[in-house]
């Protein structure tokens, strides 16, 4: 067993990525733990109270688990561009009887301080951060409380910054990842570097344990990143069709649609780059969306919720990594065990 796995308290180096918005369920965390790994409670978009409830539910299962937190990294929106975009998206919103006119940009930090207070006072085994790097004092506070601290990075400079902040582990996320990129510079596209190459580059620059993420979908993918120097692999998209997934039925169906057109990195839904299945929304609005997170996330949030309920795949954020064709209808534990089979 490598040192990172020992620190995490797990036996299998294939972990379940945090997927905010409902895809990660307590059942998925349990399946990950029972397969020898662990999953992460997503704190993103949740109130501190809801996070506390999710942590309590995971803790009641007596399993190893982590919590993933969105660290503040403001991407303010230009108000004129925001208003123009709202007017443009109104054409799709009309299908779901939503009026976007007069919507005021919401610029919040996802209750970051409250969540840190909660995790410091009621510590969990692992806390990971994405979107931004917290201050050294925050990292030290969580480590003093007994948590292992991980930081999502997408390049060498970010890896060095994470190490400087005092984190224990780096989650190295390649551009092939589904959902939001963890890049610290969201106005710049994340580098199109294969994850195994990215692991090798960061391993040379920083002496921290590395977890590989982004586009990992087969046993060979996992074996390749481990050979490149990762001590664990993290997967998300391949779990979206499992029995424990909380992804909506329309999302799960789209992942397996033989007529699908692949994935695209888009800011159309949230104002921050994220990889999703191409659909009518990304085609219509991808080139017109301003940068602005979380303002665009809040602007389109209700529309996307109603689209999911109505089964409207053309108006929904269908987050998916490049390996989405490998997502299967099976138990999450079976998926994770299968991915570890070549190790």
From TrEMBL:
**Record keywords: Signal included?**
yes
Q: Where is the signal peptide?
A: 1-16
Q: Which UniProt keywords apply?
A: Detoxification, Flavoprotein, FMN, Monooxygenase, Oxidoreductase, Signal
Q: Name one Pfam family in it.
A: NMO
Q: Name one GO molecular function term.
A: monooxygenase activity
Cofactor or coenzyme needed: FMN
The UniProt catalytic activity note for this protein reads: 3 propionate 3-nitronate + 3 O2 + H2O = 3 3-oxopropanoate + 2 nitrate + nitrite + H2O2 + 3 H(+)
Carries keyword Signal?
A: yes
Q: Which residues form a coiled coil?
A: none
Q: To which protein family does this belong?
A: Belongs to the nitronate monooxygenase family. NMO class I subfamily.
Q: What is the name of the protein in this document? A: Propionate 3-nitronate monooxygenase
Whose protein is this, by species? Streptomyces kaempferi
